[in-house]
Amino acid sequence: MTASFLSSELPLIAAPMAGGATTVALSSGAASAGAYPFLAGGYKTVPALAAEIAALRPLAGPLGVNLFVPDPAGFGATESERALFAGYAAEIADEAASYGLELDAEPQQDDDAWADKLALLLQDPVEVVSLTFGIPAWRDITALQRAGSAVLATVTTQAEARAADEAGVDGLIVQGPRAGGHSATWDPRHTVSDGRTADLVAAVRAVTRLPLVATGGVDGPEAVNELIAAGAASVAVGTLLLRTDEAGTSTTHREALASEAFTETTLTRVFTGRPARGLRNGFIERHEHREITGYPAVHHLTRELRKRAGAAGDSDRLHLWAGTGYRAARAEPVAGTLAWLASGL
Question: SUPFAM superfamilies under this entry (predicted)?
Answer without folding.
Answer: Inosine monophosphate dehydrogenase (IMPDH)
